[in-house]
Amino acid sequence: MSLGKNIHNAFEVVFETFKSIEKLIVKCRAEIDKEKYYMPTERFLRNSNDSSWSGWIYWSFILLFQRKEDGKVMDNGWINAPVYAVEINVDSDTCAEPELIVAKMIFKDMTEWSKGCLPSNHAFFYDTIHANDIYEEKEMNNFIGKIAPMAGYEEDGFWGFKQLHYMTKKLVDVNQYNYKEMIFGTIEELSKVEE
């Protein structure tokens, strides 16, 4: 097989992967239980930068959810309660194989946050989920990791970030029959984890 054909085949695999990711994102948006969950933004967050090849393709897709029973939607479009970041991660620098990460992010106070969340805010959520060098990680219940900022990092440009609890699952294990349980069931499990 020629080099050119190999390149085309490699891109076909990437395109098919993106189609599957798009289907999952569309299902999450379309079939969300609107009585139970709120999306501060329906757009997925992603890193996009045309100044380098690494920004020409998306490696991480993040959807944000909040639980309506945790509070009332404020004028700024947020509930002053945990934010659940659902990341579809295909970045080989941060995972051995593609994964689904569901993270409960706890902040000190969201009343002063600006309205909305741009797709470019991806870096904040992604870096907070993946930046283990400034966090202390502990295993809880054999499957929930709890990360808290080390001393001196609590307010350092992290929007008042306090803690992150997360679960990681293999992306290949998520399908059209179990995605609600894998995502929203995990959100419910994480909602029970105490600060």
Describe the secondary-structure layout.
Elements: H1 3-30, E1 37-38, E2 60-67, E3 83-89, E4 99-107, H2 122-130, E5 135-140, E6 144-149, E7 161-170, H3 179-191
Antiparallel strand pairs: 1-2, 2-3, 3-4, 4-7, 5-6, 6-7
Kindly list the characteristics that best describe this protein:
globular; 3 helices; alpha+beta; seven-stranded antiparallel β-sheet; 195 residues
Cα-atom Rg, whole angstroms?
Answer: 17 Å
The DSSP helix count reads 3
Stretches where pLDDT falls below 50 for ≥5 residues? none
Helix and strand content put the structural class at: alpha+beta
**Strand portion, in percent?**
15-25%
Order of helices and strands: HEEEEHEEEH
Tell me what you see in this structure.
It is a single chain. This protein is an alpha+beta fold. It is 26% helix and 25% strand. The protein has three helices and seven strands, in the order H-E-E-E-E-H-E-E-E-H. The protein has helices at 3-30, 122-130, 179-191, and strands at residues 37-38, 60-67, 83-89, 99-107, 135-140, 144-149, 161-170. A seven-stranded antiparallel β-sheet has the order 1-2-3-4-7-6-5, sandwiched between helices. The longest helix has 28 residues, at 3-30. The protein is globular. The mean pLDDT is 85.
